[in-house]
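The passage that follows is intended for readers who have already worked through the single-chain material. We present the inputs for a multi-component assembly, then the predicted structure in tokenized form, and finally a short commentary. You are encouraged to pause after the input and sketch how you expect the pieces to fit together before reading on.
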Amino acid sequence: MAKANFLFTLSLCLVLLFHGSLAIRQPQPQGECQVDRIDALEPDNRIECEAGVVESWNPNDDQFQCAGVAVVRKTIEPKGLSLPSYSNAPQLVYIVQGRGVVGTIFAGCPETFQESQQTGGSSGVQDQHQKVRRFRQGDIIAIPAGVAHWCYNDGNEHVVAVSVLDVSNKANQLDMNPRNFYLAGNPEDEFERRYDERRDPRGERDPRRGPFGEQQQSNCNNLFCGMDSRFLAEAFNVNEHLARKLQSENDFRGSIVRVEGNLHLVRPPRTQQERQEQLERESGQGRRYNGLEETFCSLRNVENIGDPSRADVFVTEAGRVSTVNSNNLHILQRLQLSASHVVLYNNTVRLPHWHMNAHSIIYAVRGQAQVQVVDENGNAVFDGNVRQGQVLTVPQNFAVVKRTERDVFEYVAFQTNDNAMTTDLAGRASTIRALPVEVIANAYRVSLEDARRLKFSTQETTLTSARPRSGRWAAA
Amino acid sequence: MAKANFLFTLSLCLVLLFHGSLAIRQPQPQGECQVDRIDALEPDNRIECEAGVVESWNPNDDQFQCAGVAVVRKTIEPKGLSLPSYSNAPQLVYIVQGRGVVGTIFAGCPETFQESQQTGGSSGVQDQHQKVRRFRQGDIIAIPAGVAHWCYNDGNEHVVAVSVLDVSNKANQLDMNPRNFYLAGNPEDEFERRYDERRDPRGERDPRRGPFGEQQQSNCNNLFCGMDSRFLAEAFNVNEHLARKLQSENDFRGSIVRVEGNLHLVRPPRTQQERQEQLERESGQGRRYNGLEETFCSLRNVENIGDPSRADVFVTEAGRVSTVNSNNLHILQRLQLSASHVVLYNNTVRLPHWHMNAHSIIYAVRGQAQVQVVDENGNAVFDGNVRQGQVLTVPQNFAVVKRTERDVFEYVAFQTNDNAMTTDLAGRASTIRALPVEVIANAYRVSLEDARRLKFSTQETTLTSARPRSGRWAAA
Amino acid sequence: MAKANFLFTLSLCLVLLFHGSLAIRQPQPQGECQVDRIDALEPDNRIECEAGVVESWNPNDDQFQCAGVAVVRKTIEPKGLSLPSYSNAPQLVYIVQGRGVVGTIFAGCPETFQESQQTGGSSGVQDQHQKVRRFRQGDIIAIPAGVAHWCYNDGNEHVVAVSVLDVSNKANQLDMNPRNFYLAGNPEDEFERRYDERRDPRGERDPRRGPFGEQQQSNCNNLFCGMDSRFLAEAFNVNEHLARKLQSENDFRGSIVRVEGNLHLVRPPRTQQERQEQLERESGQGRRYNGLEETFCSLRNVENIGDPSRADVFVTEAGRVSTVNSNNLHILQRLQLSASHVVLYNNTVRLPHWHMNAHSIIYAVRGQAQVQVVDENGNAVFDGNVRQGQVLTVPQNFAVVKRTERDVFEYVAFQTNDNAMTTDLAGRASTIRALPVEVIANAYRVSLEDARRLKFSTQETTLTSARPRSGRWAAA
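Having made your guess, compare it with the prediction:
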């Protein structure tokens, strides 16, 4: 009996110990990349707001822990306003669909969008505020850590925006947890629930939460909530009743709210502004970026990579690639991030390659493809389909190959380096081309003739069509 | 009985497990910032020396673990000499009180303070040594990682100096433990005791310590102690008896020793030197820092931020702010640190703001203020008074507001970025000013009129007086 | 009985807990530097290949965990080809012995070594490939993270090459485990076995391994193994039979294979090429490195530091030091690494010093010396002999002194900073020289005369002969 007791206690200890070590492993401050298996994931958290939806991927998943990122997708209805907030990580946002305006707030910079005395606002008083920028489908928007931003859907269709937050970026001096700091409203944080998973092992219970750990929504979540309303009244030089409005108590609209009527902004008429922004973008590399820093206050932070005419790589019958990095969007040098937009036509192979200096986080915009991701042991940590709406991480240095069958596959890849570099394993600009033929022959134990075939048969770079073509196998 | 036994054992296991996980959590190499509560702290360790006192804050406290810093306060009596040492972290020192000289040793740089043959030292032999710099109340002294330094109080009052060591700085390739390496004496390390707290969980016992883990003070602590005295004799080309003096055995004076007589240094007469240094400081931005690197050996590393005439922000009846960053003290670009000196008059509000790219470690020099620090959930992780002599950390991105009542509040804030940036939430250069009025109205659910009040009522930046004034509430 | 039971259970819990915490401590993502003792180590893992041997040091050893590096030694027989691979860490390779050619592949760069139509290869078809560089004894070769490379021994003696991989480098965004990604063959990874040590605590078992955790050598390890052979056939535009050759199944030659006959490479005749490379090296600092970046594709990555005529420091009767850093090999700015080659004659002291901004990993090329390494508490964490073939890590800021007796001691030191700086504690360019005489007298409690002896007696920098000389002790 005593022995049974002992064994039982021992096994309990073991179980607890095991749990303990697992629990402690979680909050690794830097990415732990022992990823034996990666899955293509859909968002597993969904927050309904008054005028939209916020969906997020669990940042504790192995692939995101390894890459040190968090991924969020926001859907904003027409007339939806995403409340101003900032986060502890720099982020890139890709606009999957829709159009609207975005304001990124650099406090201290001048309010350069101003109404003249003739054109006062609805109530006859002139407004002035910082520059707002238009965005549209295919845009990448760059937002530094700690910079507040808001956006508004002034179009007719839903805006769908996918963001990757680089929490392992050196700009984030807090820990690896993604955090949103809201300036208004009372929104549930899309990552909040995941904190709890991590915090539990420490046996603590936040008294501000209910018995099941859920966020008490009657409470107040924005930055003003933790401040004395008297101090706020003094700081804003208003009465305390109005100051308390800043705390947005009992605001259940979430982080995306509906604007009544039309949102009045000071800005150039759409066509004029777009022409202006078009000009700025086109002249971006030439005129603005001259080795000296752009003025901080006029730093351009939007670039379109969805437009086919903008492609950096184009292979007839195979597809195209557009890239935004610190060479064509200078702010990315601060963010240490870049992105690519890729369209693979049907029956196309994205040639096998690896990312030399970055993780790559793929979001599938449209269609599907077969993808294989290979680790340093030659094992496929992913071998399957990636479909529209899914996210897949390709860790730095892991090899990857993609192939479409009947569908076109469109995706955006977010990279954790401002000048992400890839090396192809096949094609005209690849490792095999760089190797002497006799090294190939000896390395792969093939004849010199076969070595030449491996080296010279594929003429394309990046992409190649896999459609049967005349003479395809002739050379082999 | 057996059951009770089992339950007791189980609970013990749980307790141990919990302790275990806490113990393991401690040596997190990067800051873990799950800070639910921050306290304003006074030093909790005190080491008496022959001619002064070294006080330190426990670097294992959550707020310091999050910020990745260690804080020390030294009090040096007149004629006190702080022995040469270096540490694994770059540091900023603020001189709270007193005056003296500091030597920062860049080995390989020339000995530029030289006696001519006419003015030989007390024994008739000429000395020559590296530049020494005067310091006085209000100075910030920047000391890179691994650079040895010493200082001497040649004034009439005690020197009080507060240092912040940035152990999470990239210049530190060792772990997150602050370490001092002494070149002379046999000082007890002010952080030594805290290592033990961390080391214990690994169950090791250092044979060089007593049964209760205390440092055996009869031993030898400086760098020469671990070297063979024969090797030292050969290296210094002296006899072994003298070489053994380097090891300072049985030196119980601690790290601050008393100089007998007056310390003779080669240096320009005080007024001449000060005039020179004054000139250097004033011309600092214009002449010296021209985009090219200053010569390493003449790198200026002292800047006064206490002087009222030096203020960067000044608001009548409210107070002033002086900032030192890599723009006015170039060495800070290497250290990735900056600092501000702030004086709030009574009844003043430091407008609510957040630090975009740095932690801020506040040391209260004089008086007291009410402070609120708010996290991403809108919770006040600190809400209380900060008093003279206390330290409070404001983590990156957390919002903070300060308000004085009857007292003047003077503090210095050390920041973990060479160009720390803040965003105000209220005032003329704030987020609310940057937002369109209609966004404010929709975000906070207030009328357009109230939105304009929130946006335009406060005309000051940074500081505002909270004294009742005529027409204060008139606008609201 | 029940009590004994309880105590036994409790002690078991304690033991388990202790093991648990040890197990968890291992995969610390950043170096943990509580090194109470460092050992001079020989490699403890050996992999025999067809034409050579790969030996590695356990990267989990405390000193390597602290420095964040992994060390490997490769011996390549004449006609041995080291298969192309890349790793997740930048590395420096020192050629201890032999000569050969190395190819570092920058995909996308042009194939600049080309055969004209007249001089086609053995089969009459012209080859063209990227530049290959000659290397010889005393060379440092710099290889960035993620850059594939191969090398070939075309000499008559064995090539011996020691590599230090800086896994804690910011270029590595994966975790701290060193990883090699092979493009060909089926090699056992030299670090693979050590993963298992780390992985075990998590209780996982890799199904691809045998019951004792060994790698199943019948499997396939290179990057192509995880990809569908159909995709490979399409990517390389060859038939599937040939594509499968890329996967190198059942290739048991290891990572160093024997080339049959002579390896035919396109390259200038040896003397002509060497003259060219000689020129390039000599003019390296002057012509090529002008503040602007060298073209990425022609970046020089080899520099000889073994040649006595290249010495940066030379002391008659004592020895010499050659250093390669980002000032004379520009690529090191990207790698954040540097290296020194040191020869100490017999009866010589390498003056005591510390590394201000880098760890130093010493590989003993020849002979032996007594070495002492001292931590911040004045304790010698190493005090013993370092012999040919051993590795010793000197952590950042730790003090170190070396002394030879009868043997010449030759070593190469790899440093984790592209401009590693040391401060000497004795000699003409040292801390003691920088200090005022009276500070020395007060710090070490010696007379002014003795202080002057300590300061001025040694006239050399870096090295001093310890041979009895006339008048040696006279001054003391």
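Commentary: The domain at 306-465 of chain C is CATH 2.60.120.10 (Jelly Rolls). Chain C has a mean pLDDT of 84. How closely did your sketch match?
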